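Entry:
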Amino acid sequence: MIYSDAIMDYAKLRKYRGKIENAHRIEEGKNVSCGDEITLYLVFDGDRVAEVKFEGQGCAISQASTNVMIEVVTGKTKEEVIEIAKNAENMVLGREFEAGLLGPVLLFQEVGKYPMRVKCFLLPWKTLQIALER
C-alpha cells in the first residue's frame, strides 16, 4: 500500500521542519507539474552532514520522503549520502539496489508502481544531490 501508516506518520513528522539560519547550504527543489516544493538547509561538520532541516509543502509522499531522507543521512559523510541517494533512486525506479543502506527508505518501495508518485519521492533526494554537488 502506497500510503501506509508509517508513510503517513513520516508525512506528519515535524522534527525536521524549520529553517537553519546559519546553514552552509540552502537548496530549493520543486515539482512544477504537481506543486511539491521544498527548501533544504544543511550544516556540515567537516565531510559529515551534521544537521538538515526543511521547509516546504506538497503531497504526503514528498513530505514523508523528505523526513525519512533527513533521518537517514544525518551524521553520514557526503560520500555515504551520495551512495544512499543513488540506491534510493534505484529502488523506486525498479533497478538493483542495496537494501542494507536504506533502512526506513524501504517503506517507499511500492511508490515505484505509481509513476506519478516517483517524482514526489525523488524531489528531496534530487535536491540533496544538487546541494552536495555545489
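The chain is about 40% helix and 20% strand.
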